[in-house]
Request: fold
Amino acid sequence: MSKVFIIVQANEEARPIVEALLQDNPHAVAQESPAMVRVEAEGKMTLNRATVEDLTGQPFNIQQLHVNLISISGHIDEDDDYLTVAWAN
Amino acid sequence: MSVEIKAVEIKPLRNTFTNVAELIGGDKPASRYQEATLGVQATTNMHYRPTWEPEFELFDPRRSAIQMREWYDLKDPRQLYYASWTIQRAKEQETQEANFDFVESRYLHLSLPDDVKKLSLDVLLPLRHAAWGANMNNNELCSRAFSEVLISPAIMQAMDNLGIAQYLTRLGLLLDEPEVLDAAKAQWMSGEAWQPLRHMIEDSFVVRDFMEIFLVQNFVFDGLLYPLIYDRFVDDTLTSRGGSAVAMLTSFMPMWFGQSSKWVDGVLKVAVAESEQNKALISQWTTTWRDRAVTALTPIAAMAFGNSQETMMNEVIEQFNARAKKLGIAA
Amino acid sequence: MDMKATKKKLGIKERYAHMTRGLGWEPTYQSADAVFPYDKYEGIKIHDWDKWVDPFRLTMDAYWKYQGEKDRKLYAVIEAFAQNNGHLNITDARYLSAIKLFWQGVSPLENYVVQGFARAGRHFRGEASRVACQMQAVDELRHYQTQAHSISNYNKYYNGFHSQRHMWDRVWYLSVPKSFGEDALTSGPFEFLIAISFSFEYVLTNLLFVPFMSGAAYNGDMSTVTFGFSAQSDESRHMTLGIEAIKFLLEQDPANVPIVQGWIDKWFWRGSKVLALVGMMMDYMLPKRVMSWKEAWEIYAEENGGALFRDLARYGIRPPKGWADACEAKDHLSHQVWLLFYEYGGAAAFHTWSLTDEELDWLSAKYPDSFDKYYRPRLEFLRDKHARGERVYQGTLPTLCTTCQIPLCFTEPGDPTKISHRETVHKDEKYVFCSDHCQEIFGNEPEKFVQSWLPVNQIYQGNCFNPDVDPTAPDFDPLKAVLEYFKYNLGRDNGDFEGSEDQRNFAMWRGQASKN
Reply:
């Protein structure tokens, strides 16, 4: 199965995004490089708004991801409450 | 490895890029606007002719009949570059968002008198299509224009047009159910009052001269429509009839028009002053399209102002003619 | 007052449909073909534009909000960098060659595609596709301008940055990205989209920005890493446009599949050649290296691109024709390009240099199958000559590939000792190519590629001298005249790093700044 990934900047705003991804996608793995964090997973991975909000105690809009996003791979399905990246193979 | 860097005085080797220095009279400190736009577009040694328009080079000033010795003279007096544009719009959007919240949270949209609400929707909602038409024309301007001083503000203007079309859409969704958007589109497509305007806008879609597109959309169409609709209809007529909530929901538009007019005036003034030939052409375009736009806006003014339509139209035309005259246009 | 309950909020998908698709209309006073004259001649068939999906569904209000936030952060870094002499924090002034090459050869491409996306954003018939293209147009404007503002500070203190636009229009190695960009811009709108959004943004752009910008961070260049990652945050949207575009075209009509496959073949290959420059930047120009070009290729091209093409197989799309050759080249590409620029270092507007043992060892470890066997001996030989005061500079003009315009320096697939070379005769003229794939691209569109402005051929024809130059004068020095036409400051922009003004200034300024 192919891997999907989400890469974000290594900063305070992106930290709960990485945490939420790891929490909700047990098969996901984070790799750190200078100034960035890459979270990758086999097949499919979802970022849930509720999880980020639980982690920060603040309201979170899925589109806030764009501010610190570096790269993303896979087909994207975004709604008010989640963003999923997945390969169909 | 990071060393402790003391503040030291280091003399720079140069102040700016050559393409900028050539246009600001030598190597001196340049502004962000200047470094973002001056002398940026490629000028020579192009490889292939466009498959979509082989009669021109890829970057070619001959796409307009206007002639300039130096196209970079057509500067934007607002000196906008992407960051200053987007940061300014973000602030304005915050205000506009607060207005939407204010109206919604205090149910002001529900307390509009029924006739005022209906009139607002009848006049404003079909205009989201006109704003989309403006977006098309400014994209065309961006893609065909010669020199970065035109290309860069053109795409920002196009995105502003889209933002306005979307604010009008949000206004419809807040005041009523989504079906009103369909009804407004039906009016746009076949309502009698809207046909001259739609006809004129569709005719502007086949204009290929980029300076004519610039003038038709941003000077003539906007220059008549915004004062008529946002100053006179929304801020005067609706407000005096208990519709100030609508003015709050559209406060971005007249403010934006004031800003974009500075750009439009700055460009036209220089282009007109360049030569008699430019002046004649710009004057001719202005006359033709102004007369057309006046005809197109008259039925909408009738809808908006009833008996006072003629006064309102005449005020707007006078204001426009005075503006044209100030720019050196004989129209 | 009787208050109705607040209305049900529309979901993001419904709301977005009203904000885009709902805005457009079918013209009746002008024919649709007159309003949209460019979207049929390429042979692409679209039956239902409403099937286009933009998964991010960004409206202008949100766009301004998030982009404004990004730019406030970015410009705070740019200001701080300028105020605090941030340039003295980089690892070494050699690093600047990478940024020079980026500014000379990549930033102008960002600017080029502004007009291309504005054209697509005006001329596709579907509204949602237009909005996505327009946002990319204005984003690309952002990228060029933020790069100009970040690099403005380097330009004040170092050479090679000053005449980007002039060099772009004239310099031999910059005709590689220039012809790439102009090839895309002069194509029809669908080919443009496959070229830039799909082949470049989706398949290849991660290779440019992710490892390279991480490398900038590793080398202390906060300015570049900030604009780089900030640009890359837009790039995620652009990549999504690329993949949505290709799915859309393939789903609309089976007749689109072979056309799109042809474009994928062409543009993957064109893009991989442009990225040869990035390979050299990563392996040779970063004093502190994050990962090798080969590793980056394996992660971002082979693994990620592999996943993509497995996914597209259901439409009848296969990996690009040049895929296997490009993958084989990962062991060789960066070394061959560096050697080319080292030897033509007198004619490049950035510096090259002899590598240290430590750097050579790093390359040996990263390229166990190729470096020691083919490249290390040559680099050591050149270094020895340099040490003896005989720095090698090629004075002859190379032969350029008619398609990608890179001098013939790549080797045959399967034989890294033999320079690859192909020829085609078209209408009694001979044309030269670096590879089967570049030759095939020419063969498919000879009328386009016979127009190529090949710098070496132009030099021979006398078209690369300033107008005031007299080539018949007894003391005429053609090489010098060409470099002046390129707008080089001779002896300051070009040549070896050792002994350069950049090297001297950086050492002196850093000395002043870090000592009492």
